[in-house]
Amino acid sequence: MNWWPLAGVALVVLGFALRFNPVLVVITSGIATGLIAGIAPLELLALIGESFTKGRYLLVLVLMLPVVGLLERNGLREQAEIFIGRLRQATTTRLLVLYLGLRQITAAIGLHSIAGHAQTVRPLLAPMAEAAATREHGTLEPETREKLLALSAATDNVGLFFGEDIFYAFSAVLLMQAFLADNGIVIDPWRIALWGIPTAVAAFAIHAFRIWWFARRELRPKARP
Amino acid sequence: MTALTPVYWLIGIVFGTAAWRAAFSRDNPKRVTTAAFWSLLAVLFLAGDWLPHALTGALVIALAVIAGFGGVGQSPRDPPDTVRRAASTARLGNRLFLPAAIVPPVVAVGFLLLSQLQRDGAPLFDKQALAIIPLAFAALVGLAVGCRMLRESPRVALQESHGLLDALSWALVLPLVLAVLGAVFTRSGVGDAVAQLVGMAIPTESAFACVVAYAVGMALFTIVMGNAFAAFPVMTAGVALPLLVGRHGAEVGSLVAIGMLSGYCGTLLTPMAANFNIVPAALLELRDQNAVIRMQVATALPLLALNVALMYFIVFR
């Protein structure tokens, strides 16, 4: 067994722990790991280039930025405040829990890219959550506001991750099925997808509780000194 | 050229205009490196399909070095025009949400239509294209609706996007350099070495210990690699199939399903999953780059513990 490639992992952990710039840490570890593993320099360059080229889809969020920028320039955040201000039933907790549920359900039927940090969190969810919290509790402290925005992003992640695995045609389920087939186990994808449901329900319950707890603990006392 | 190439061109154009603006922004002390950063990204997106991979690799390293040493500066932002904002909220009211709110349904319809398209009985677009193309199209629809409704030009929208790109700065390329690192790790056999380590640590006699090793191992491995899909084959071949299925007779379908979801708990905890954890912190302009991860810890850890329990009670039923 060759243990040397693990040096690359150690480098990443160390680099993050020492709070160097993540991009620098990651590229350094990549180059070091490749060289330690005996990949020829030119071949390593080609591997870096090829994987970057294939990964470019990760930046599709950039195409949302012009819309978001345009709307914010014309008062999107202000309108979110006005809108939430009129909806008395719209509390921070209800808003975020509703979003969590919708995100899980839509991901479970295969629609994962209909929402996301650039599509929905920055332009819609985060300003509405902030507006609801402000209406309920007054202007937020900067740290509380920062936590609330982070919670909005976290809610999108939890909804996506623990919804998508129920969709039987989602790549994760097919990846599992293909991997098992390679190992001589033939199984219907439904039998994998079905067992994602208990965890999905638990994820909803735990995160919904966390949202409620956050609204109760973090929003209330700090906003009313 | 692939089905996604036109999408990459559009993204490349956004980067190109950002480079152009950075090059002429006198108030940015890092003008040269900032312009170089956005220019390199523009080249990689516009010409990436045709450049030799080794050259692309060299450009990626240059990009990472500029980003990693703080070379990406910000141009000063105009203060918000409160008069304009008040005027358009008064004029449009909730219609102001329309350009953003139209994106999810357009993505949904686009996805459903494109997934029906076939050529010679095979789907025309793969899963990745099905996720990306409708979103890119919906963003353009949103932009068109927004420009028309607000009587603004796409040029203004591009200018506004530059402020958001400035806020994202180096965080924008982190998911991509992590994809690179994942590829290097795979080629170098990092996965096998980690699996070996985990294998050595498990007492194989106890079924419960094996369940813990598989679920927690998936989460830990995902924290290291930033991706549960990378952890899955290694941990399943190393722990789940030989020990849990082979030795203790676990049911395989529920085992792998809960195993993968245990990996997702790890995804919530790691800066290596940058597009979910670091990019949104930058996009929301939070001061702490790990703020989103911090909010996820108290969801991920109880859920992981629950996954261990679920796995133990379900797979041996």
Counting structural domains of chain A, the number is 2
Number of strands of chain B: 2
Order of helices and strands of chain B: HHHHHHEEHHHHHHHHH
Biggest β-sheet of chain B, characterized? 2 strands, antiparallel
Rg of chain B is 23 Å
Shape of chain A: globular
Reading the helices and strands of chain A in chain order gives: HHHHHHHHHHH
Structural features, described:
By secondary structure, chain A is mostly helical. Chain A folds into two domains: 6-57, no CATH class; 60-223, no CATH class. In chain A, 74% of the residues lie in helices and 0% in strands. Chain A contains eleven helices and no strands. Chain A has helices spanning 6-17, 22-36, 41-54, 65-73, 76-86, 92-108, 117-137, 142-164, 171-182, 189-194, 197-223. In chain A, helix 6 (92-108) packs antiparallel against helix 11, helix 7 (117-137) crosses helix 8 (142-164) and helix 8 packs antiparallel against helix 11 (197-223). The radius of gyration of chain A is 22 Å and the shape is globular. By secondary structure, chain B is an all-alpha fold. Chain B has a domain at 175-315. Chain B contains 15 helices and two strands. Chain B has helices at 5-23, 31-47, 53-68, 82-92, 98-101, 103-114, 127-150, 154-168, 174-188, 190-201, 207-225, 228-247, 252-267, 274-283, 291-315, and strands at 118-119, 122-123. Chain B has a two-stranded antiparallel sheet with strand order 1-2. In chain B, a hairpin with a 2-residue loop joins strand 1 and strand 2. In chain B, helix 1 packs across helix 8 (154-168), helix 11 packs antiparallel against helix 12 (228-247) and helix 11 (207-225) runs antiparallel to helix 15 (291-315). The model of chain B has no long low-confidence stretch (mean pLDDT 91). Chains A and B meet through helix 1, helix 2, helix 3, helix 4 and helix 5 of A and helix 1, helix 3, helix 4, helix 5 and helix 6 of B.
